[in-house]
């Protein structure tokens, strides 16, 4: 199996995850600033969101995106014929892709 297509798929999904979570993080920061305005003090926060918790979660997902990107890039450089790690790299890439199995571009032959 060529891992180039799988790698491209993974890097695209990771970029989408990162973009969505950056939006979420900006929104959480905007809400936190908005509820600190003196005219809003003592009012009910819609949905009772704990915005610092949302910020922490979004920041963690962004860190996970960076970690996944590094893993994909590292596995991409493994060659089974040269160093014997290619099969392990493919296994790792397939495991990462399983998270996106419901995506329309995910291919059945990528399943672990």
What would your notes on this structure say?
68% of the residues lie in helices and 0% in strands. Helix 1 runs antiparallel to helix 2 (51-76), helix 1 packs across helix 4 and helix 2 (51-76) runs antiparallel to helix 4 (86-98). It has helices at residues 3-35, 51-76, 80-83, 86-98. It is built from 4 helices and no strands. The protein has one domain (3-110). The protein has 112 residues and is mainly α. The two termini are 13 Å apart. The longest helix is centred in the first third of the chain and has 33 residues, at 3-35.
Summarize the entry for a quick read:
68% of the residues lie in helices and 0% in strands. The chain contains four helices and no strands.
Give the topology.
Layout: H1 3-35, H2 51-76, H3 80-83, H4 86-98
Shape: elongated
Cα-atom radius of gyration: 19 Å
Mean model confidence by pLDDT: 81
The end-to-end distance, rounded to whole angstroms, is 13 Å
Specify the number of helices: 4
Helix proportion of residues, in percent?
Answer: 55-70%
Structural class of the secondary elements?
mainly alpha
Order of helices and strands: HHHH
Number of domains: 1
Counted beta strands: 0
Strand content: under 5%
Query: What kind of sheet is the major sheet?
Result: none
Could you name the ranges where pLDDT drops below 50 across 5 or more consecutive residues?
Answer: none
